[in-house]
Every structure is written in C-alpha cells, then in structure tokens.
Amino acid sequence: MSTPAVVIAAPASGSGKTTVATGLIGALRRAGHRVAPFKIGPDFIDPGYHALAAGRPGRNLDPVLVGEPLIGPLYRHGSDDADISVVEGVMGLFDGRIADAMTGTPRGSTAHVAALLSAPVVLVVDARGQSHSVAALLHGFATFDHSVRLAGVILNRVGSARHDEVLRQACEQAGVPVLGSIPRTAELAVPSRHLGLVTAVEHGRQATAAVEAMT
C-alpha cells in the first residue's frame, strides 16, 4: 500500500459509518487534500455519496468477489494520485463470509480488508442508550484480533454534554482514544428507505444537501 488509508468501521450496521466516512472525505477535500474513497464489499449505494464528497468516483474493495491478490492492485489503482484514502467498512468490523466465521476473521469483512491494506481502523460507535458499557465493547473489539489496529473511536448520536463526558471517561478506561463525537441530529443522517439506503442519484439535491451537512 502506497497511499495512506484509514478504515471507518463499526460494531454493527446502522452505527453511522457512511455519515462519518462521507463527512471525513468532504472535510479532507475542503482542506485541500485529494481523497480516494473506497467501500468494502459490492455495495453500489454508499460510493455514490462518497463520490459527491470527494469529487471523484467511489470504488469497491471486495476480496470475496475478486480474491485477495487483487485487493492491493485495485487499491493502488484507485488511490494512485490521492494524498489519502478513506475506506468505509461493511456491517460490523468482523462480519464477513459466514462459512469462515469459525476459522478466524471472515473473508470479506472490514477487519480482513484492513489487514490486507495494513491500515488503521477507526470505530464508529452508536452511543444511544449506553454509557460505561462502551468500555467493555471497545475492549472486545480492540483485543479480538491483534492483526487489526484500532486507532480510535468516534462516538455517534451523543445525547448531551454530560453523556459525552461519561462516554469519554469510559473510552479512556478501555485505552481507546476518542477522535470525536457527533450529537444526535437528523440533519446528519443519510437518506434511507426500507432494506437499504437511497442512491445519491435518486435523491439528487437532497443527497447533495445531506453530504454538505455531513461535511
């Protein structure tokens, strides 16, 4: 891997990966960086939002479909002229091919691709309805697979300043740095529908407005 990358992961789907990844892509672009966006798996919806934020196509990295040997070349091709890459994960950090679940980190999982890229992982945690329990959650994700480098956590859907303070204390107890926190607000949500997100093309101006709010 030549261009540095950061992988945006989560304990489960619906935690806010797309919101954080899209926001980070847009913020880096506004700061003058050339950002290469990637999505793990065959998803064709999230890359549309990534493309709006990055001003360049979003690409997929799927070792189940193309095989491990092609992930490196595909990554280098997609990030060749970029300063940094933002790679959005799929489902939970260790979720991949079910058949592989009992033999180690499943193929196609976010953890699998992060290891192939030797890239650090930032975990997005939906903080609704929890406080100190986040310490146990982070400890588990940080120690489950030592080939995964957990660089920090972003706390999503934080209810108040006091909630933020308690969560940060819990993260410190787990030894995982807090890289940021996001308050609960509908403005930062990607438009969604039953069984999945809505494509950026379908939502047109609303998609553009959503991306602007995220960045």
Short description:
It is built from eight helices and nine strands. The chain is α/β, with parallel strands linked by helices and 215 residues long. The two termini are 27 Å apart.
Choose one word for the global shape: globular
Structural class: alpha/beta
What is the percent of helical residues? 25-40%
CATH architecture: 3-Layer(aba) Sandwich
- CATH homology superfamily name: P-loop containing nucleotide triphosphate hydrolases
Distance between the termini: 27 Å
Fold-level CATH name: Rossmann fold
Which regions are unreliable across 5 or more consecutive residues at pLDDT < 50?
Answer: none
Radius of gyration of CA atoms, rounded to a whole number: 16 Å
Beta-strand segment tally:
9
CATH level 1 name? Alpha Beta
Structure description:
- The protein is of the alpha/beta class and 215 residues long.
- It has one domain: P-loop containing nucleotide triphosphate hydrolases (Rossmann fold, 3-Layer(aba) Sandwich), CATH 3.40.50.
- It is 39% helix and 20% strand.
- It has helices at 17-30, 46-54, 63-66, 71-79, 110-117, 133-143, 161-174, 200-214, and strands at 5-9, 35-40, 59-61, 84-88, 121-126, 150-158, 178-183, 192-193, 196-197.
- It has a 7-stranded parallel beta sheet, with helices on both faces. Strands 8-9 form a two-stranded antiparallel sheet.
- Helix 6 (133-143) links the parallel strand 5 (121-126) and strand 6 (150-158).
- Helix 1 crosses helix 8 (200-214) and helix 2 (46-54) crosses helix 8.
- The chain is globular and about 45 Å long.
- The two termini are 27 Å apart.
- The mean pLDDT is 90.
